[in-house]
Amino acid sequence: MLESPVRPKQPQLHPKKRFPFKKQHKLVTLLLLCSLGWFALRSCQARFFKSGQQTQTSSLVSLRSLTPTARQSQLIALINQPERGLSPQQQRDRHRAHYLLAADLIQQGKGKQALDYLQDLSQNYPLLRPQILFKIAQAYRQDHQPQQAEKTLNYLIKNYPNSPLSANALILLAKKQPLSAQLISQFPYHPLTQNIARQRLQQNPNQYQLLLLLTRFSRAQDLNPIRDRLVLKYAARLTADDWQAIADGYWRDEEHRKAADAYIFAPSIPRNLYRAARGFHRNGNLDSAQSAYQRLLQEYHDSQEAGQALIHLASISSGDEAVVYLEKAIAKFPEVAPEAYRSKAIVHERFGKYDAANDARQKLLNQYSNSNSAGEYRWQKAQDLAAQGNKRDAWEWMQPVVKSNQEYDFAAQALYTTGKWAMAINQPEAAKTTFQQIIKLYPQSYWAWRATVMLRWEVGDFNQLRSLAPTLDLTKTYEPLPMGSAALQELYFLAQYDDAWLLLQSEIEHPQQTSVNEQFAEGVLLLELGQYSQGMKQIWDLTKRETPQELEQWKALRQTKTYWQSLFPFPYETQILQNTQQDKINPLLVISVMRKESTFNPTIDSAVGAVGLMQVVPPTAQWAAAQIGIANYSLTNPDDNIKIGTWYLKHNHQRYQDDSLLAVASYNAGTSNVNSWLQQYNIKDRDRFVEQIPFPETKDYVEGVFGNYWNYLRLYNPEIRRKVADLHQETKQPAKPSK
């Protein structure tokens, strides 16, 4: 089988060593390369789009998410099709079926059977040749043919030296000890290499090269102690690029002060200088922040970051000096001018210069009427008018925001309140239009749910949710990853997520500065690997991107089903549906509480001792388990935690006559606090009651759980999904997610 393999037509380049151009080129050459790069990118995007369309028509789309047992007979049927007359797509699916069936058999320890399906597959299915060779070696080992396995592994290493599977092969071939030096040199991104580095550092933490390897190539969340050690013990040995990796890692982990210190020694580019200044600023080191902002303005006065620097400098400067900075921002940086006008008005008003303040606000409204700053000013003014009892004027002040299709950071709640003002002044059609606008522009928000309630959609209100049993379509949508080689896309399509993850790590050029698409692909694969909390965080953290180009890529991702289903996944489906059916409670309430409590981490615990998916405290668990007759249980066991948590949520509903608002609030704050609030506040207006909850954590919790509920409903209930889509067709403005 391996005697006369089909060799690749050209040598493969290591993914991290592509395009080894010299640093200095003539301007013409650089422009030519940029043009070629742009056309190559467009060609690549078109190719992947076409590939995604072709894959959607594959007969394996419906099989990729099934268990090995459930799909075995269908895969065999695909394999046994007569070859004659098959289309290219059918031929490809036949090869895919061979690979999937062999992978399933190896997973079950049936290497001998797997070999039957791997015969000649490396010639017929060259796209996954390294993966096929490694599977052949695994099958030989399971079939007790060590010599054939060794021969296959050596062939893999020789012919595909840069494949991440060659690192796996080196480990398997090592007789006594892993080939650590070779792995560290050739495969620093590989999980096996990083595990070796961690093991060695446990024995001796003072190993500079291993500390640096993890700092530069690892994407784990526990690296701050390693970065700290490098900074404190080896600062003199670090290069500017090393400092860049350290700073980016700190920044991603929101260690802003440490990041600021590190960015000072990183390459002097606008992004780094701006982050250094922002890090000092956020940490309260205002003198250092001012110096860093000033350095950015001196060295890169025309950069995009300079405009934001002027706004931030004004916020920590005296009145006259602040106005000077803001006027510079207005004159030179139109993209920040609205924010500068609004800040200028605030500064003038603070010093009693009311005419100047009004002039700044008027220019904001006249020249930048569609800006976020203008909208925020209108919202502030409208709230003041409403507080004085003048809801009609408040409603009129908000009409430019209502009629705009512009997305504003503040506007979901503002529009909802405006809609309620319209109802109060007997403007039902205006209220309807406003509520529909919320669903169009902010379909993911808690306020979109409140708007659908006002529009009398069948979504359930606070006191109607428990008894609802919404129809759910939990079918997972396949969409190609937004980046990656053809082999990576193929592994992802085949649901070979471990191999896809390994290949992705080899294809990420700069691990501490991942692109939007790289970070999204990582998040999606982490979810598929069952690491829900980490995967959701990866995708949510895309909201922190800063540059216009990154934000455009993020907006494109938000138009995909994969994006939203990744932020609102539906794990533990069987357990949730079984327990909610037994306890007669809406399953979407249970998964919404679970997402808010733990982001689906079954072993998480809190400062107050709450444990597991639904964050049940042990005394409550003990009492609840006794009520439902569970003698032995573990709160870190998903089955037990979901059973106990679901029953306790039902019990809370029974305490409050099935009022989900009070049941959910008491799940977080306890019944004694909720009972106290019922004595203090009027429950008749539920929106106002939520606003009056005196515990910020509980108010956020309530809005978070019901926001989750709405998102699960709009994503997985076919009727509501259709109604939202129908409204959304009226605008192409993308929406911004909520956590």
The number of distinct helices, counting runs of at least 4 residues, comes to 41
Mean pLDDT: 89
Question: Strand-residue fraction?
Answer: under 5%
Main sheet attributes: strand count, strand direction, barrel closure: none
Name the poorly predicted regions. 1-51, 733-739
CATH class term of the domain at 575-728: Mainly Alpha
- Tell me roughly what share of residues is in helical segments: 55-70%
How far the N terminus sits from the C terminus, by CA atoms, comes to 52 Å
- CATH architecture verdict of the domain at 575-728: Orthogonal Bundle
The value of Rg in angstroms is 29 Å
Class computed from helices, strands and strand pairing: mainly alpha
Kindly report the CATH topology of the domain at 575-728: Lysozyme
How many E-type strands? Answer: 0
Based on Cα principal axes, name the global outline. globular
In words, what does this structure look like?
The structure is a single chain. Helix 19 (337-350) crosses helix 21 (372-387) and helix 28 (497-507) packs antiparallel against helix 29 (516-528). The chain starts with 26 loop residues before the first helix and ends in an 11-residue tail after the last helix. Residues 1-51 and 733-739 have low confidence and may be disordered. With 739 residues, it is an all-alpha fold. The protein has 41 helices and no strands. Helices cover 66% and strands 0% of the residues. Among the domains are: 24-53; 72-176, Serine Threonine Protein Phosphatase 5, Tetratricopeptide repeat, CATH 1.25.40; 370-441, Tetratricopeptide repeat domain (Serine Threonine Protein Phosphatase 5, Tetratricopeptide repeat); 486-567; 575-728, Lysozyme (Orthogonal Bundle), CATH 1.10.530.10.
